[in-house]
Design a protein that fits this description.
Helix content of chain B: 25-40%
Oligomer: heterodimer
Strand order of the largest sheet of chain A: 2-1-3-4-11-10-9-6-7
Number of strands of chain A: 11
Radius of gyration of chain A: 16 Å
CATH architecture of chain A: 3-Layer(aba) Sandwich
Structural class of chain A: alpha/beta
Strand order of the largest sheet of chain B: 2-1-3
Distance between the termini of chain B: 6 Å
CATH class of chain A: Alpha Beta
Order of helices and strands of chain A: EHEEHEHEEEEHEEEH
Shape of chain A: globular
CATH class of chain B: Alpha Beta
Shape of chain B: elongated
Number of domains of chain A: 1
Number of helices of chain A: 5
CATH topology of chain A: Rossmann fold
Order of helices and strands of chain B: EHEHE
């Protein structure tokens, strides 16, 4: 059966179509889910896109977190379902408490829009299967990507292998060069760089493809495991 | 009833925007400015009738107005 992936659209999301395109390139079916829905359709994974949900009012992601569909996204994550937040989606995940930390204003105060180099690290997640140890080149486009947390949480995140992506050359002042983190279980991942923007050579790069291939592979494996 | 809420960054949380404002003030000649921390101020109109309005506003702060990972809040009821 074809894997089905929900891409949630909030008012102000602007990478939702890119995410759906990336999902469909790798043999999965993308389903657009409006944030006002009270529940998710039956899906195998949920992606939260980049953009400027609610105009970044109050704090990035702070208001989107209370969109009606998010309660079901939190339940989906608690059941172990794969959830990925990219850029603003990452900010929403931190506001929900689904992944640790918070994203502060970039240290240099400027919007950073360029390619960065990342190292894939940490425990295996549905989005980094077979990628750990690799170096990727992906674009970033954010003003609030400066990941921060208290020292105790930082020690736990580092100690438990929850750093999923680390910058090689820090663009925003994030603690320990952290670009992306997972939850303790590893099924929820947030990252600032945009893998969906580099999935075809015509877009300028293909290093984001592995994230979607990983998701497709992990969904297939889960289904195979469930029916075995 | 009105509530005033002050949301401020916890000590130790880096505030690059505050630092930029400080730099601006110093370059204007206000050399005495040793540090600037930028926070948020909310003024809210509340309907009467809640038995514990302070507890309600503090709950609003914890749930939405402040991110307690990095921010503290203070509530005044008028």
């Amino acid at each position: 059966m074809t894997a089905t992936v929900a891409v949630v659209t909030f008012p102000g999301s602007n990478c939702d179509a890119d995410l759906r395109h990336a999902v469909s390139l790798f043999g999965m079916k993308a389903v657009a889910v409006w944030h006002k829905e009270s529940s998710l359709p039956k899906v195998d994974a949920v992606l939260l896109p980049g953009g400027f949900s609610y105009g970044d009012y109050l704090r990035c992601g702070a208001i989107a977190r209370f969109s009606p569909v998010m309660a079901d996204v939190v339940r989906f994550a608690a059941r172990g379902g794969p959830v990925l937040g990219v850029c603003n989606g990452f900010q929403i995940l931190t506001e929900c408490g689904l992944v640790p930390g918070v994203l502060l204003r970039n240290e240099g105060l400027t919007f950073q829009c360029r390619d960065v180099t990342l190292r894939v690290e940490g425990k295996q997640t549905p989005f980094t299967r077979g990628l750990v140890g690799q170096t990727l080149r992906l674009p970033i486009a954010h003003a609030e990507g400066n990941w921060f947390t208290d020292p105790e949480t930082l020690a736990r995140v580092e100690g438990e292998g929850q750093v999923a992506f680390r910058y090689v050359g820090n663009p925003n002042g994030s603690l320990n060069d952290i670009a992306g983190v997972s939850n303790a279980a590893g099924n929820v991942v947030g990252l600032m760089p945009h893998p969906e923007r580099y999935v075809e050579a015509s877009l300028g790069g293909v290093d984001g493809a592995g994230v979607f291939r990983s998701l497709a592979g992990s969904i297939t494996n889960t289904e195979a495991g469930a029916t075995a | 009833m009105r509530a005033r809420v002050y949301v401020t960054l916890k000590p130790g949380v880096h505030d690059p925007a505050g630092k930029a404002v400080q730099g601006g003030l110093v370059s204007m000649g206000y050399d005495e400015v040793r540090g600037v921390r930028i926070g948020k101020f909310f003024e809210m109109e509340l309907a009467d009738g809640e038995s514990d309005p302070r507890a309600r506003v503090e709950e609003m702060c914890r749930k939405l107005l402040a991110n307690t990972v990095i921010e503290s809040f203070r509530v005044e009821l008028l």
